[in-house]
Specification:
The protein has a domain of about 60 residues. Helix content is about 55%, strand content about 0%. It is mostly helical. The radius of gyration is 12 Å and the shape is globular. α1 crosses α2 and α1 packs across α4. This is Carrier domain-containing protein. InterPro entries: ACP-like_sf (IPR036736), PP-bd_ACP (IPR009081).
Length: about 90
């Protein structure tokens, strides 16, 4: 099981990579409270999927395993609103 600190580091790296592809007004802050879905989110659905793919890649590289986030979110009745929610989701499944 990967610890939450390691997972957050991976997520923050993924945020920085994703931000390079986003317009300035859509860029995310690397903090747990940053909204990634819902009305207050800065990114659209494409940005969210791009972020999830980057997170999977970073977590896999750093810890050796990561759940398929898009697939698990589709199958599970889970709502991930913030970066902290994503970190918790991953830490419970790795």
């Amino acid at each position: 099981m990967a610890d939450r600190t390691t997972i957050l580091e991976c997520i923050y790296t993924a945020i920085n990579e994703t931000n390079e592809m986003l317009p300035a007004e859509s860029r995310l802050e690397p903090q747990e409270s940053e909204k990634v879905t819902g009305e207050e989110a800065k990114i659209d659905s494409l940005g969210f999927v791009t972020l999830l793919v980057a997170i999977e890649r970073e977590v896999e590289a750093k810890t050796g395993g990561c759940p398929n986030l898009a697939e698990e979110l589709t199958e599970a009745d889970v709502e991930l609103t913030t970066i902290g929610d994503i970190a918790g989701f991953i830490s419970e499944r790795t």
